Amino acid sequence: MTLTPSHRPALAEEITAKLRDMIKSGEWPLQERIPAEPELMATLGVSRGTLREAIKALAHSGMLEVRRGDGTYVRANSEMSGAAQRMYLEHTQEHIVEVRLGLDTQAARLATKHATAEDLAEMRRLLALRHDAWLSEDYPTWARADWEFHERVALASGNPLLHQLYVSFGGVFHNDLLRQQRKEGFNGIPREGHDDLVDALEAHDPDAAVQTVYENLDFCADKTPR
Predict the structure, then answer these.
(1) In whole angstroms, how far apart are CA 149 and each of 56, 93, 195?
(2) Partner of 157 for a Cys bridge, out of 23, 68, 107, 210, CB 3.0 to 4.6 A?
(3) C-beta separation of 175 from 84 below 8 A
(4) Residue 67 is inside which H or E element, if any?
(5) pTM of full prediction above 0.70
């Protein structure tokens, strides 16, 4: 008897790649539920078994989360981000701040050389949004603006790998911000590591830029919930 090779694994890999692209492109936003199985099967022209293989692969990578009885949600926009989120569950908040210190200081130092006028303008816009959101107690908007500010600094570093690493930790850092916000005495709009950092970038002063990061994260470490 002659056995013919199965094409199912290749098809499952193709569907996995398509779903991955939908997530990366933002077609399916973070924390949102993806379309139900019947809709995806019709859209992609595949069987339920093939679709489930693809979803299982992306759930294993950390990009999707299957919630029994509720649906499947986007958990991360890349395998790196999904792996980072799983990894961080095994570490303390102190460890998170220590990792941020390494990334933030290097991003700040490099951004003093590479940040453009457009970068600086966008950073100041995000800080204004962050300021207004904090005063109006719109904490989700405050946390998002704060995170996008730091991500912009990483982008302005001119190092695409550093920026990619920083983005991969986005979900963790964003959730950590919201935890800090609930800590008594926490100031959500310090100049250190934010307004002072932009001033240092504009002045092309790497030592001042790094110092503002240290001051900000020292405060965050002191206010991080245990």
Answers:
(1) 34, 21, 10
(2) 107
(3) no
(4) strand 64-67
(5) no
